[in-house]
Amino acid sequence: MIEIIKETGSTSTDLAARTRDGEFVEEGHWLVADHQIAGHGRQGRVWSDGEGNFMGSTLVRLRRDDPSAHTLSLVAGLATYNAIAGLAPGLSSLALKWPNDILIGAAKVAGLLLERVGDVVIVGIGVNLAHAPDVPGRAIASLSASGWSVDRDAFATALEACWGQSLHDWHGGAWDRLRGEWLTRAHPFGTALKVHGADGSMIAGTFAGLDPDGALQLQLSSGTRQTIHAGEVDLDQGR
Questions:
Q1: Domains in the chain: how many in total?
Q2: Comparing C-alpha atoms, which of 35, 91, 19, 65 is closest to residue 175?
Q3: 114 with 205, same domain?
Q4: CB 132, CB 142: distance < 8 Å
Q5: How far apart are CA 185 and CA 45, in angstroms?
């Protein structure tokens, strides 16, 4: 179920194109590239690849009784975290950050991006196994620099298994349990965060968990709690 290609613009773009063209791609199929020349992340941010890193995409076929599609971002983050933790079991500083990043300390080691095509959700995941790309204004980590040598193909196999189990559970009505598991792997409650809105606004507060639908709960200094449905979230290291 893992299809490896030498080079492409973006594995997610490829799977989206196959879907739009009417090709049936099964759930559980992964498209993994040795190199991506047009990879991208949130806010249109360029995400350059590196030899030995993981760059891959899969898809989900939505069913009538599934949870909200946006919760797949958290499910994919959980599966990616579990795959990393299984291959780097002593990496104690690993943590999930809402909605779609995985950190080592305060630096991003993995991220994911969802794209909706009708009743199909494309899930793209990038993990810095061997190299940390240079992203201006962002702290970026790699497993290699953290002392863990993880083979790309071994990681792909581990992620396929973790994702398959998590997706099975998500389809099967276990969203509440998956949400709880996500919280146990996130940065601690009370972690200072900044949320940047698309309109240029910024809200500061502390991490107060997730609501039942997976939205971020932010505790404000006023004592009120605000629900965040979208935004760019950074650790507030000045607090």
A1: 2
A2: 65
A3: no
A4: yes
A5: 26
SS3 217: strand
Tokens of 157: 């196999």
* 202: CATH: 2.30.30.100
**Both structure tokens of 73:** 């971002």
State the Cα–Cα distance between residues 76 and 80, nearest whole angstrom.
6
pTM: predicted TM-score of the whole model, two decimal places: 0.93
6-59 residue pLDDT tens: 999 999 999 999 999 999 999 999 999 999 887 655 555 555 567 899 999 999
Contacts for 7 with CB less than 8 Å, ≥ 6 apart? 33, 34, 35, 36, 37
Quick one: CA dihedral 55, 59, 195, 91, positive or negative?
A: negative
Strands 2-8 and 30-36: parallel
- The torsion region of residue 165 among left (phi > 0), alpha (psi -120 to 50) and beta comes to alpha
- Across 75-197, the runs of DSSP E, i.e. the strands, are 94-97, 101-104, 107-117, 120-127, 192-196
Q: Which is it for strands 120-127 and 232-235: parallel, antiparallel or unpaired?
A: unpaired
Q: How many CB atoms lie within 10 A of CB 23?
A: 9
CA pair distance 79, 45, nearest whole angstrom: 23
> Per residue in 59-115, pLDDT tens?
999 999 999 999 999 999 999 999 999 999 989 899 999 999 999 999 999 999 999
Q: Considering 185, 203, 225, which residue would you say is the last residue of a domain?
A: 185
The CA distance from 227 to 210, in Å, is 8
